[in-house]
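Training component of the fellowship. As part of building independent skills, the fellow (R.M.) carried out the full modelling exercise for a liganded target. The chosen ligand was ribulose-5-phosphate. The inputs are recorded below so that the supervisory panel can assess the work.
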Amino acid sequence: MTQDELKQLVAREAIKYVVEDAIVGVGSGSTADFFIDELAKIKNRIAGAVASSEKTAARLKGYGIRVLELNSVDELPVYIDGADEITQHLHMIKGGGGALTREKIVAAVAKKFVCIADESKLVPVLGEFALPVEVIPMARSYCARQMVKLGGNPRLREGFTTDNGTVIIDVSGLKILNPPELEAKINNIPGVVTNGLFALRGADVLLLGTASGVKKMGSE
Ligand code: 5RP
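Fellow's submitted model of the complex:
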């Protein structure tokens, strides 16, 4: 099976977690895109969706799925999104597509976070994938220096601006042994909007696409 076929497999499986007549939170990236394609098939059975990026909102609208502002939503039973890396503890690195802040906000509101990923994303320790850190442009250099102090190697994502008008520093070389602690530490640096560690609020369920089918981890 190709990586895209594995992504499609978990996207299909994730439909089982969508609550009828409710609003669903939808993530960003290629795996989330496959999920949107599946969601379109059952669009008449949901009340609408909250999108974690402008790109996701456009894809949802393209299918005629109603997209709601998060502020107008009281309850979000489930949020479905991909990851760049995930551990068996369901801690993740996200933000490869640059939508980390909105993803973290929608995930915070959701009762259940279902992560969908192909098996290449499951890692023993986070940090092989450079950690995205979203920062206010005027704090770019300061934040980069703070990342060096934490043992990282920061690199500005050239030519990229987030949906929030901010920039991203990708930090390689971090061996992340305590994800919740590092997540909080980086978020405390003035100028940081948020970082791509999703550990304080990790996933509740992981649907992992493998050659032998979908492997489920976490609790329902
Ligand atoms: C975007 C993300 C994505 O979930 C992450 O980059 C995974 O993407 P893909 O499904 O394309 O591998 O965090 O900000």
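The panel noted the following from the submitted structure. The mean pLDDT is 98. Helices lie at 3-14, 30-41, 54-62, 100-109, 140-149, 179-187.
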